[in-house]
Amino acid sequence: MEKSKLLLLFVRNPELGKVKTRLAASVGPETALEVYLHLLQHTKQVTQDLPVEKLVYYAGGVQEQDVWHNSRYKKREQAEGDLGARMQAAFADAFLEGYTSVVIIGSDCLQLTPEIIMRAYKELETHEVVIGPALDGGYYLLGMNCLYPQLFQNKHWSTERVFSETIQDLQRLHLSYALLPRLSDIDQVEDLDEELLRSFGL
């Protein structure tokens, strides 16, 4: 286990009507919750054996007994504010605690693999920032070796502009960055492939 590397996971508690709300508008809150539980399980499978420290940040209260086993994952509650403020606070705490390579992911990407996450840490050996672009114009992963607050400020979160705005910041700050493969986040019914649609009876 490498103490210098930290993986941050931003999640919501799986509560009916409070997760995947854009998806729920098309398929209903019950199915949206099923999809989210499926995403959580996938993210756990992808991350649980990675040789890095892991910290789950919850929106809406820490759950002691859940899919994130206490033996593998540390747990905290997300800070106040918009997504950028919450991510910035998590990165700031990580660097204050002595971590030198910090990567954040959500729980929305079924295409994410352990290899892609470990590639992010590898890229941080030769770049200041690594980013995994999502097909919807956001990103599914962000990593850095020290805190760059500008990357979390003045963004149109949850829109197709987040990735491009972040790249503009990186270029303006003259930061070296690496790009990971472009993957799909699951936010709307169009993001579900045919196999998943059938499995959820859609």
Explain how this protein is built:
The structure is a single chain. With 202 residues, the protein is an alpha/beta fold. The chain has one domain (2-196): Alpha-Beta Complex (Spore Coat Polysaccharide Biosynthesis Protein SpsA, Chain A), CATH 3.90.550.10. The protein is 33% helix and 21% strand. The protein contains 6 helices and 7 strands; from the N terminus they run βααββαβαββαβα. The protein has helices spanning 21-27, 29-47, 83-96, 114-123, 162-172, 194-199, and strands spanning 2-12, 52-59, 74-77, 101-105, 129-133, 139-144, 177-179. It has a 7-stranded mixed sheet with strand order 3-2-1-4-6-5-7, with helices on both faces. The longest helix has 19 residues, at 29-47. The radius of gyration is 16 Å and the shape is globular. 35% of the residues are buried.
| Strand composition percent | 15-25%
CATH homologous superfamily label: Spore Coat Polysaccharide Biosynthesis Protein SpsA, Chain A
Shape: globular
What multimeric state do the chains show? single chain
Total of helices = 6
CA gyration radius, whole angstroms:
16 Å
CATH architecture verdict: Alpha-Beta Complex
Sequence stretches where pLDDT stays below 50 over 5 or more residues: none
Largest sheet: 7 strands, mixed
Structural domains: how many: 1
- Widest β-sheet, arrangement of strands: 3-2-1-4-6-5-7
Helix share bin: 25-40%
Structure classification: alpha/beta
**What average pLDDT do the residues reach?**
90
CATH topology: Spore Coat Polysaccharide Biosynthesis Protein SpsA, Chain A
Strand runs, count: 7
The CATH class label is Alpha Beta
Q: Could you spell the SSE succession in H and E letters?
A: EHHEEHEHEEHEH
Q: Whole-Å distance between the termini?
A: 41 Å
Pfam families: DUF2064 (PF09837)
Organism: Pontibacter chinhatensis
Protein name: Glycosyltransferase
